[in-house]
Amino acid sequence: MNEAQQWIKQFYGERGWTEHGPFIRIGFLMEEAGEAARAVRAFEIGRDRPDEEVSSQERLKQDLVEEIGDVLGNISLLADLYDISLEEAFRAHQQKLLKRFSS
Asked: Among residues 74, 87, 88, 71, which one has the least CA distance to residue 20?
């Protein structure tokens, strides 16, 4: 996870995409989450729009993979703005859930 986060930071940074602060970054994240939601809908129930070409399940799956990747990239950059590693965020999430749902 940390290697992926470093790659994202470098790749986006080389293009000037890391210069945005947290308020702009969270907006990008919400935009990408919406695109991921649209990809899920298209994959699961279709779009049913006469102005759109019907895609194969393989293409719909690839679109979903790409949109989830876009969400991951923006989460990674948001975490980096606060000096939080994705590994750290995952571990905190894991511990919270284990504590909350332990019997």
From this structure: 74
